[in-house]
From TrEMBL:
Family membership: Belongs to the class-I pyridoxal-phosphate-dependent aminotransferase family.
Catalytic reaction annotation: L-aspartate + 2-oxoglutarate = oxaloacetate + L-glutamate
Coiled coil region boundaries: none
Protein's name in the database: Aminotransferase
Complex formation: Homodimer.
EC number(s) reported in the record: 2.6.1.-
Top-level class of the enzyme under EC nomenclature: transferase
Organism: Harenicola maris
UniProt GO MF annotations: L-aspartate:2-oxoglutarate aminotransferase activity; pyridoxal phosphate binding
Keyword terms: Aminotransferase, Pyridoxal phosphate, Transferase
Domain Aminotransferase class I/classII large: 32-392
Gene3D superfamilies recorded: Aspartate Aminotransferase, domain 1 (3.90.1150.10), Type I PLP-dependent aspartate aminotransferase-like (Major domain) (3.40.640.10)
Length: 400
């Protein structure tokens, strides 16, 4: 009999973290590796935000806080949700955690019972299904397709909902595809949810501010106000504010749900880092000008990567609306053999051979629930992206 629980046996380590770790280990061993696996901006945290963290230390703001955040940060979150999304919340409806992942986990633990189902559109962020399993629920994967630019349709959502469905987890712009739902596309989904009043929506808006061209972000409770009482709007400061290591995520929703999440957090980690909370207050209340400046760089990188990957034999890469990922298909490479003699049976083999033979680290599509694909994070320098995509082109051209 295993000492470890049956629950832990149901889940797997995060593949994205595994790829990033392996790339780091290979680099440390002297290999020429370009890592395109990490979902982390290469920009530094803006100076005003860093200064706020330093100021908190100097002023002695280093003690425990309330389990789910200081009132000043909750007020800043309420102001942000009103300013950017037209949503009205009060601090008692807000929870702050050590990153967006903990927010999602708290909500699932606080609400799921055995047999409860959670609809997860695929491709999905790798942690969604495992967090549902850890919380005792059953993930129900609803596959989108490249024909809809990896966005779930109303008919697909309708087909996935049963009388056991408790949540829909919704992410736009998406990790891993970068696909963003327009107002009309999201309205079609919220219309389905209005026909199923027992289904709540957990909306992961982490990439809200990373939007390009004429794409305009919107969130479910904004599109359909009647969903307000069964929506948990999740966001954080990690991506747009280049604050990944500061570990601050937050959510706003019905007060009884927030109380349940607070109870979970009070018995696990308690409060998120106090210093990071004060830095997040400055992030949300301070200047936002750098976001548009960074987006110009991200858009240039997106266009570079999409063009070069579409120039790789057997690869097809849609143009995403946001985030800093692309999700190309490698359907044209499956069944071929690499220069080192590896038969490319699936996207995991493709990614492994690509790393071993060219030193380019990507995350295989099966980790995100839809194959044959791989994810590229273009949150790195133009030079790295050009070299990495050139290696991918050469690798694909050499497949026989």
């Amino acid at each position: 009999m295993s000492f470890l629980s049956d629950t832990i046996a149901r889940i797997q380590p995060s593949p994205t973290i595994a790829v990033t770790t392996l790339a780091g280990e290979l680099k440390a061993a002297g290999r020429d590796v370009i890592g395109l696996g990490a979902g982390e901006p290469d920009f530094d945290t803006p100076q005003n935000i860093k200064d706020a963290g330093v100021r908190a230390i100097a002023e002695g703001k280093t003690k425990y806080t309330a389990p789910d955040g200081i009132i000043e940060l909750k007020q800043a979150i309420c102001a942000k949700l009103k300013r950017d999304n037209g949503l009205d919340y009060v601090p008692s409806q807000v929870s702050v955690s050590g990153g967006g992942k903990q927010v999602l986990f708290n909500a699932l633990v606080a609400t799921l019972n055995e047999g409860d189902e959670v609809v997860i559109p695929a491709p999905y962020w790798v942690s969604y299904p495992d967090m549902v399993l850890l919380a005792g629920g059953t993930p129900v994967v609803a596959e989108a397709s490249v024909q809809t630019n990896y966005k779930l349709t109303a008919d697909q959502l309708e087909a996935a909902i049963t009388d056991k469905t408790k949540w829909l987890i919704f992410n736009s712009p998406s990790n891993p595809t970068g696909a963003g739902y327009s107002w009309e596309e999201l309205k079609a989904l919220t219309d389905v949810l209005m026909r199923h009043p027992h289904v709540w929506v957990m909306t992961d808006d982490m990439y809200e501010h990373l939007a390009y061209d004429d794409f305009e972000f919107c969130t479910p409770a904004q599109v359909e106000p009647r969903l307000y009482d069964r929506t948990l709007t999740v966001n954080g400061v990690s991506k747009a504010y280049a604050m990944t290591g500061w570990r601050i995520g937050y959510a706003a929703g019905p007060e009884h749900l927030i109380k349940g999440m607070r109870k979970v957090q009070s018995q696990s980690t308690s409060n998120p880092c106090t210093i990071s909370q004060w830095a997040a207050v400055e992030a949300l209340n301070g200047t936002q000008d750098f976001i548009a400046e960074n987006n110009v760089i991200f858009k240039r990188r997106r266009d570079l990567v999409v063009e070069m990957l579409n120039g790789a034999e057997g690869v097809s890469c849609p143009v995403p609306e946001g985030a800093f990922y692309v999700y190309p298909s490698v359907a044209g490479c499956i069944g071929k053999t690499s220069p080192a003699g590896v038969l490319i049976e699936n996207d995991e083999v493709f990614a492994t051979a690509l790393l071993e033979e060219t030193g380019v680290a990507v995350v295989f599509g099966a980790a995100f629930g839809l194959s044959p694909n791989f994810r590229v994070s273009y949150a790195t320098s133009d030079e790295n992206l050009k070299e990495a995509c050139s290696r991918i082109q050469k690798f694909c051209a050499a497949l026989t």
